[in-house]
Amino acid sequence: MLWPGVAAAAATAFLAIPADAQDDNCEPHPIDIGLDEPLMGGCEPLKIAFMIAATNNTHLQAQVQGAKDAAEEIGAELSVFDPNWSPTKQYNQAQNIISGNQFNAILAEMNDGNQACQIMTETAAEEGVLVAVVNQPLCDRGTNEGKELWAPGTLNFVGGTQGRAAFRDWIFSIAEENPGPQKVAVLTGPDLNSNTINTDLAIEDVQEEYPEFEVIATVRTDYSVLQGNEKTLPLFQANPDLDIFISNYSDMTRGAVQAARQTGVLNTLKIYDSGGNKWAFEAVDRGWIERTRTIEPYAETYTAIKQLGAAWEGEEVPRFTMTETMAITPENVGENEAQY
């Protein structure tokens, strides 16, 4: 299924279905968040603050759409808060959201999961705010795998396709596909982003196993097409003999492909992408990149919001939900569609 994109806003709000006033006869029910004391909820209408990392690319915009669609289905109110990749701004937003008594739930995608650990796993629970987490784990759990991505004090974690194991498997497959001496460059997002950290760790794992897979540069960006272009242009100019280029998000890859074309290395450089958006599918089909690895931004937030709604209604939800991934190659690109 091909999910529609959305225009992002710094803070958008909508009320999907008019919510009934709180039932005076309602008895709040316990919601298990992995602490000694459960969070009590379920009577007031569900009002969710979506604390997204930013809104400046198609992945993030697909997350917004997934959250909106799920909120509409469960009759919840949703507001989106955009800190534009700033951990400090996002932390301040969290303080205001939790203390402002306007929200009883948070969908958290925190730019610095360690900085936000206490406020999301302790303070929010103390104030009766239910927290669901997507994509970016909390509390120094970014390099964990499976169920260990979930942090006690929160309802759940949805994601995993950008965890350490997933990136390790992906980059190992690239090294195995390209034996012998290789001159490699890597493009990632911001420093504190867990996807960046996991990519760095995966590269270390691969280089230990394949020392001839030599990474000569790692470049940081804000995940945008613009920085993908601006920051790779001098890289390609200085290294025309580069063999392999790895990017952990498709919008950055798009900018890098433009830079590779500008510098005349597109036909000699093997480009590998993680993200699998519509542009990446086209790039595989046209031969601009070797392959792309799909992720599911829409499914992450859609699932997390639906689980928030289920827990609010008294249902048990899983601590950890893994989204899906697959490799899109020239051989199978015509048999699949991008999710965003």
TrEMBL record:
Any single Gene Ontology cellular-component annotation: cell envelope
Domain Periplasmic binding protein, chain residue ranges per copy: 48-316
Span of the signal peptide: 1-21
Keyword Transmembrane helix: no
Gene3D superfamilies xref list: 3.40.50.2300
InterPro entries assigned: Peripla_BP_I, SBP_2_dom
CDD domains on file: PBP1_ABC_sugar_binding-like
Pfam families (alphabetical): Peripla_BP_4
Entry GO MF terms: carbohydrate binding
Broad class of where this protein is predominantly found: other
Sorted UniProt keywords: Signal
Subcellular location: Cell envelope
Family: Belongs to the bacterial solute-binding protein 2 family.
Protein name, per record: Bifunctional carbohydrate binding and transport protein
Organism: Pseudooceanicola batsensis (strain ATCC BAA-863 / DSM 15984 / KCTC 12145 / HTCC2597)
UniProt lineage: Bacteria, Pseudomonadati, Pseudomonadota, Alphaproteobacteria, Rhodobacterales
